[in-house]
Amino acid sequence: MDDFAIAVSRYRRRKYDQSIQLCDKILQVNSQDQSTWVLKASSLIRKLFLDDIEIDEQGIGDQLMNDDSINTVARPGTSLQRPGSQAGQVLRIYYFWMGRLQTGYARPVTNRQEAQENAVKTARVGTRLGTARPMTQGGRYIRLGTASLQQMGDQFIMVDKLDMKKMAAKPVVSRVLCDYLIYVEHNPRKALQLAAEATQANNYSDWWWKERLGKAYFMLGLYREAEKQFESSIKMQEMIKTQLQLAKYQIHKHIRIYLRLDQPTTAIELYKRNSERYPHEISYLIGIARVYDQLNQPEKALPFYQNTLIKDNCNIEAVASLGAQHFYLDQPETALQFYKRLLQLGLYTAEIWNNIGLCCFYSGQYDLFYSCFERALSVADEQQRAEVWYNLSHIFINLGDSGTAYQCLKISLCYDPHHGEAYNNLAVVQSKRKEFDKAKLNFQKAIESNEFIYEPIYNLSVLHFNQQDYSQCYSLVQKTLKLFPDHSDSLELNEKVLQVLQQI
Amino acid sequence: MNQEGQVQQVQESLILKKPQRIINRYKHNQLLYNYFVIRDFKSAQELIEKLTQEHGDIHEYANQIQGYIFKMTGQLSKSTETFKKFLSFNEQDQEVLKTIAKNLQLDGRFKISLDVAQKALNLKKNDWEVFYTIGNCYYAQKDFDKALINYKRAFELSINETTYNRLGKFYLSLEKYDEALAVYKTALNSQPQNNELKALLGVLLLRMGQTQEAKRYLESVTATDTKSLLGLGSIMQDQESYDEALVYYRKLIAIHPTSAQVWNNIAMCYYGKQEILPAIISLKRAIYYDPFESTIHFNMGLVHLYEKQYMSAFHYFQTAITLNPDDSQSYMYLGIALNKLNDFQNACRSFERALELDKEKDYLIYLNYCIILLQRGDESSQYAQQIFRYFCDQYKEQEQHYDNRCKKEVVQELKSQIYKYLKS
């Protein structure tokens, strides 16, 4: 059988690695084989493809450099920037002095995280320079015209040598190339060039190129420009009703822009409008739920996750989120069902066993929880181990066994020496044992290792207050109130300290 | 800002006219005082800076205010330094000595503070603040007798919020309730309209078991005071009017959403109303906020025992025991749970331990032990008889006491049943 036919068949059966191998073999013989080239590019794209609708988490760098959000002071409940600090909202973290410890447990694995891992892996693509001689043969072998499209060693396409104008004139090759640039090379700049040329070549009337143009802008962080392109693409698209699937995709992206521009309410409205138009598309429902989650309104997210499960009962993210939410709503038995479902779906990770263990413990199934944590520890990596031991310490605290809890926290800190919460809880346990100096030290470490949690600062201030060290206490309370202005205990302590200090 | 402008104008006119000879140093004192009183520390500090530039470092009032500002913003050592500078103007200034002593005490340097306070005392014999400071120093050094003497002196010299609070709390920490009560009552005589005092008195009376009087005090206080809300709630709870108690607790939880004690009380209200699910949820929340409190775990055990979930109950009682190993009640209930789980031997051991720890000779332990022994059958009936006799003795003594754990009719009936059984 013809090698090319086999390669196509493998591509269709989603055996991309084998397909690429075969294509390599053909290309070694004839490096100008255009169809093989297209096939290899498509295989690479498919292999490394990640649904980038799924990733919209911003990195710290993005947030620092974010100059798109116009309003720096957010109205309560309308912004994603500072959820949790506004009055009347549900607070997520509670662990204080007197052992208000975090029930913090690792967020269940969602497909979102997997996609991100993928992105990290694919970003490490090496580049090597090289040249090759074009060769011509008859039949279906058409000369591509540029040496840059030739494969040399690891490097499949010499991006820098491409002439975008020429490429844009070839409708099929250019599209594959554009996807290749976006998904494999992660080179939005080149993709933008190509898309711009291609749009021009198509007299500004091709929605596909406009969409890709928008995508490239989006990757470059030029959200306003991206928005324009998407909008005009959708306008065109709606006249061609046959391409529904793609329209959805574009609308979806449209919403993402609103999210990044920090307008969650607008985004939710858009999601809702579109989910009425396409009632069977779950990505809108999940989208709404995620936005509510980020806004710290989990009770509103709940029905959307439930609806998602009605339409797609294998949706891992919905199952995991529902599990977590039921756990926090004091229904560990229900949460347990969801996590069992995740196991059925074939996920076998430390987080899930950890969560099942916690659910078992809180629903009173004491004979089961221990083995769950054992399993979690057996599959966990270092970071996860720190979390699992941290959770175990909670269990022992709940059992009143502060000695073992102390040990667990120590182990957790061995695996992750920057675990602020663990330091805090360790200090709480120590102060329960009246080892105040050690406790102070650990609170200090907790503050250093995570400057965004206010609990260790509050705890330390209480410790200073009890030891009648008022000047330290005062400055610490001020710090706490800066991080969390509505913290009722801190406000009370502040009043007490001021009362002491202001006696004249 | 307006005032600031005026100050500058005044200054400029000063410079223009140049009344060189006599400079009125006290000119800005009123303005400085105003800034200080309205807590506009920034403007005050600017003014102080200006004054020190004008007059050098010897402006008395500016220095004084500067010291107070340092103190109020928590920079105690700086404040002490400022006041010490102040002392160089006049070594015999009693007020300054007093302030320095207080500062040192707040900063935790008790010995030096005591020395300074003694100097102040030599200058003026009857100053309650000095006695109060000395008392605080002794208290921090755990010398309670000397602290008490000084607190008492301070209280005799002046009855005010600081003195009665301090003395009252001191007695409470030593569990001398009658003395504390006397202190609060004298204080209330001199300040009959003080709501805070009434709340304190009410809670204290409640703790001493004088419910009626406590209620009278607490109800006269406005209903937003947290102490009175908690007190009234617990009175209502004791009288088994749970809905009213819940009303109080609901108000309280809006103010303190993270208080484990309040959640615990709420849970026990629901338990009293036989609504188990809300009780468990509230208790879980209470444990979440304070996992080191044995009472909450104990209550959790009770609720689970009622629900016939003996394994969970066992775990919670065990936790309560690890947190508070001297509690006979926990051991008794642990014994009951173990017996229900068919571990008779360990149940017996648990009861024996409860009897060992029990100092008040609680009749319920004997009664429950007796029942368990009788349920077991013949082999332990003799021992059961003995225990029953003990129970009868204890019950006779304690019958008159108020006890909301168990209804008297139930106990009576059980007693007669066991009596009949043992006879036959």
From TrEMBL, chain A:
One of its GO terms (cellular component) is BBSome. SUPFAM superfamilies: TPR-like. It comes from the Eukaryota. InterPro entries: BBS8 (IPR028796), TPR-like_helical_dom_sf (IPR011990), TPR_rpt (IPR019734). Keywords: TPR repeat. CDD domains: TTC8_N. Gene3D superfamilies: Tetratricopeptide repeat domain. Transmembrane segments: none annotated. One of its GO terms (biological process) is non-motile cilium assembly. TPR repeats lie at residues 386-419. This is Uncharacterized protein.
TrEMBL record, chain B:
Keywords: Repeat, TPR repeat. InterPro entries: TPR-like_helical_dom_sf, TPR_rpt. SUPFAM superfamilies: TPR-like. This is BBS4, putative. It comes from the Eukaryota. It holds the Pfam family TPR_16. TPR repeats lie at residues 161-194, 226-259, 294-327, 328-361. The gene is BBS4. One of its GO terms (cellular component) is ciliary basal body. Belongs to the BBS4 family. GO terms for biological process: cilium assembly; protein localization to cilium.
